[in-house]
Amino acid sequence: QSADADALFALQGVLAGRNKGFNVLFEEMLTAFVLDRDEPKGSISKDQGAWLLAMLDGGEGLVANAAELGLLIRLVEEADSVPDDLASFALHQIQHAAVTGEGPAAKGRIHFSRVIDAQDVANMARLFQRAKGARRRIISRQEAEMLFEMAEDCNGEDPAWDGLFAETIQA
Length: 171
Known about the structure:
Blueprint lengths: L2 H13 L4 H18 L8 H11 L9 H13 L5 H17 L14 E2 L1 H10 L13 H13 L1 E2 L3 H11 L1
Helix pairs in contact: 1-2, 2-4, 4-5, 5-6, 5-7
């Protein structure tokens, strides 16, 4: 990958998501880098997915901060195709927050353990490309299993959870 992209990740590692202006730049620049660099445009290749996983895994299978989570969700939301392992990694961020009430996906808000709240539902809707309607991506078996685990382990505080769950599993 590019030295510039690596440098953005290194700088984000130092700033740890604390600089909102840089967070916006980080997300915009890396989204353009990943989705517009290689053919087919708008898709994340397996090699790009592996690079992203290496750059984003801050330990214990979680991104390091909310800025990296924002990038991850935006990439999966906007891409025409996404490697299954990258999409599962993205969903794991939300699953971890819902089950434990901790992690970057829960940071900056009150998030009780074993609860799927409105922000979790909104993030999942983005991951599942709900806004694309019939053109949205089909989830992998691993993602479906994660959704069933979340349904079993958590209470859906947000009424939209049931609809999103059913809609996503049926697709």
